Amino acid sequence: MTAERPRTSVNAWRPSVTGISEVFHAHFTDHAYPVHTHDTWDLMILDDGAVGFALDRRFHGATGAASVLLLPPGVPHDGRTVTASGFRKRNLYLDDSVLPQRLVGSAVDSPVLDDELLRHRIHQLHVSLGHAGDEFESESRLSFIRERLHFHLDALRPLAPSGEANRLAARLRELLDSRIPVGISLSEAAATLHAHPTHLIRCFKQTYGLPPHAYLTGKRIDRARRLLLDGLRPAQVATAVGFHDQAHLNRHFTRHVGTTPGRYVRGLTGPVT
Prior knowledge:
Distance between the termini: 68 Å
Helix content: 40-55%
Largest sheet: 9 strands, antiparallel
């Protein structure tokens, strides 16, 4: 009896993150893409298997989970499985606000990037994109991916935190503290403080020891605990402190406190005498 071949699976959605037009996860066992082009940049990582493709009539290949593939807009390419088990991949389709058209030539020359840090950051972004309500984190992670891609394609070095890092970080913290229930996007914060997004994040982390999105989540959890102690229901608390819904609150609350909001409230029995 022959073993059953793994089935093809596809999952696609459009996240609420500026710069990402589509997220696409797939497992292909015998699929072959015809020659085609995209209007967007195609940023891909493999989770398993191998893939072969021709870009601008030059053949390339990637295997396993070590490489990052970047296919530029407007350039013909195809793609195919090269093993019986196929491949698992995760794609991000990025618009020109992330990478400008002038970098297309560099991407054609080097579409496969061996960069473990970049791959790890892309993986982290995919994880955050899978959770509604974590757009601030996703936007922050995308900013660092953009910077890393510019490092490869444009030889741009990251801007190190300056002597005024503490002052810039303090201004961002004040902004976050004033927007706990409604939140703020990274692009809005950067525009308000006249700072580059990744530089803003680096200054904040250098000063306070955690990235801005983690700080904001922690402040929301603190406020949620107080409201739960006041007797509000978890669903009410989620909306009041800025989480997307109760499931979003539950996930972060459990990670921070070690239990769900519902169990936290049921455990309120007062001091032991």
